[in-house]
Amino acid sequence: MMSFNKDLITIGDKNKAKLFMIWFHGYGSNNWSFEPMLKLVNMNVNDDMYIVMPNAKIVDNKRSWYPLPTATNNNELHEDFTGFKATMLEIVELMKQMGIKSESKLLVGGFSQGAALSLGLCFQKDIDISGCIALSGYMPCAKEFMSNDIRCKKIFMSHGTEDNAISFESYERSYEFLNDKQTTIHTCTGDFGHTVTKDVTNELTDWILNNFIE
Description:
This protein is of the alpha/beta class. The chain has five helices and eleven strands; from the N terminus they run ββαβββββαβαββαβα. The chain has helices at 35-44, 81-97, 113-121, 168-179, 198-212; strands at residues 9-11, 19-24, 49-53, 57-59, 62-64, 70-71, 77-78, 105-111, 131-135, 154-160, 184-190. The chain has a seven-stranded mixed β-sheet, with helices on both faces. Strands 4-5 form a two-stranded antiparallel sheet. The protein has a two-stranded antiparallel ribbon with strand order 6-7. Helix 1 (35-44) packs across helix 5. The longest helix has 17 residues, at 81-97. The model has no long low-confidence stretch (mean pLDDT 91).
């Protein structure tokens, strides 16, 4: 087990929150990296959120949520679905331990590898997810989810055309795959790189307010 609950950062008041969110950082980063942005977002939604940010385990001196894709001898991409699925099961257990109020809604979200993890969680049957935020990410192990129903019907996706870490083409393929699942996807794109711009943050704040905060 990754013991996610031993190294958490939280934002907001759990007892007053109308909306819960679990947030996943990117590969090689940590849960402190998005604390300033998420504090700002929460402030702009009237402090109505309770945000939990776990840390990924350290693999080869870098924090990673799941095994990175590798290239085969034929130059094809191999994704470790077993490793990815194991992480999702542990995250589902963490979410169950968060003590989410029955009347509250739950968002999952993240950046880069954390965004990919969030999109995978949208297919999990053991947890009720109201919305997903995927910033500069991609849909991992898409072939494995081809015949699965997506349970999260509202998704916010942002990506930059100048992203050199996860290509814009990967975003476009991910969007097409998810959109075929009859999901409502709000997109926010522009000529930026592997980052989160002020415009993305503002648009994300509006999306949360319009969809989840009454």
